[in-house]
Design a protein that fits this description.
two-stranded antiparallel ribbon
Length: about 270
């Protein structure tokens, strides 16, 4: 047809050619626009926090059904309170915790007792886990593709893998970090191992044994202990009767008293709370 136009109607041929070039140019522009948009969306998705993607996927009814089937094949239930399984269903982070310096409250560190060490380590572990989020393993990212292809068996296998590799990640860990292995999903058992090792190594620092309880004391020792408690109680009573006469700064407590925030922060580290 083009050859006929070129031979018998040159004007029509030139018009047809220019129109075709114009249409092809518009198609190329549109194709490039779509390509760049997809690339931007992929890049944006890769930079989003992994836990947000996991939470969105766990809101999908089809994926939840696949997870439920994977739990059933393992002889488990979605209501199982095992920490590993709980992570596979998403555990939100607890937010930032204030992290006071224990040294301010416990000046003589060489005199710290095993009970004090345990409380401090427990506080440290809570601070460590404060910004961690429980999430299923990265295998969950590929389940949707298998479901769209109608491959239910492989989707269940991926759900099973996501459950087995569930654990904790930092709330700011991106999807790309998890997919590329830059950030690892840490299993609850691995965190517990760190805790046990931390406790074991820290207890080696304890040079002073714990103060025995009243039930472990006998005779005169028990009497001295009780007298000491009574003295402390009387001192606390005198301090309470003089409470409103002193000038204190701090935060108003629920009972009407004034709480010194700085002291509270120091002793929170010592007491592990």
């Amino acid at each position: 047809m083009e050859k006929g136009l070129k031979r018998f109607d040159k004007v029509a041929y030139v018009y047809e050619r220019d129109m075709r070039k114009s249409q092809n140019k518009l198609k190329r522009i549109e194709k490039e626009r779509v390509r760049k948009q997809v690339a931007r969306e992929v890049t944006s998705m890769e930079n989003k926090p992994y836990y947000l993607m996991a939470r969105r996927l766990l809101n999908d009814k089809e994926i939840i059904s696949v997870f439920r089937r994977a739990f059933e094949l393992q002889g488990l239930s979605l209501n199982d309170n095992n920490e590993q399984n709980l992570c596979s269903r998403y555990i939100p982070s607890t937010g930032k915790l204030h992290h006071p310096v224990p040294m301010e409250a416990q000046a003589a560190v060489e005199l710290i007792m095993p009970s004090g060490i345990k409380r401090t380590v427990e506080y440290e572990m809570r601070a460590l886990k404060a910004d961690l989020v429980g999430v299923p393993g990265p295998a969950i990212l590929d389940i949707s593709g298998y479901l769209k292809a109608g491959n239910i068996d492989d989707a269940i296998k991926l759900a099973n893998l996501a459950i087995m590799t569930a654990g904790y990640v930092p709330s700011d860990a991106s999807l790309g970090d998890i997919r590329d292995g830059v950030v690892k999903v840490t299993k609850p058992s691995e965190i517990n191992e760190v805790y046990e090792l931390y406790i074991k190594d820290s207890l080696k620092m304890a040079k002073v044994s714990d103060i025995p309880g009243i039930g472990e004391l006998r005779g005169q020792e028990a009497k001295k202990k009780i007298n000491s408690w009574m003295s402390q109680a009387r001192a606390a009573e005198r301090s309470a009767s003089d409470w409103g006469k002193r000038s204190l700064t701090g935060k108003k407590g629920r009972g009407g008293g004034v709480v010194n925030l700085e002291q509270r922060q120091k002793f929170s580290a010592l007491n592990g709370n």
